[in-house]
What we know:
The protein is of the alpha+beta class. Helix content is 44%, strand content 12%.
Amino acid sequence: MMRKLRSNFERGTSRWAVRRAQWKALGITDADMEKPKIAVVNTSSELAICFSHLDGIAAKAKDSIRAAGGLPFEVRTAAPSDFITSAGIAAATSCRAAI
């Protein structure tokens, strides 16, 4: 019996069937499908030293989520950097605000 979680669609619906097919294709088990799904958003980048350490932190976060009974998904996103933008602090600040 599936727990009532926002990340679980009602069994038998088309949304449930599509999500189940996608997750099965990724190798996710039936047992994992019943767990809470938790996103770990990672802005790691090899282009900026201030973001380069985040892969290790994301891995530890995912291990902790698994240990607590959840199913982590890592999601990558843009990492604005003063070094990369080179347009000054105003441009970098507006990028961070948008994210």
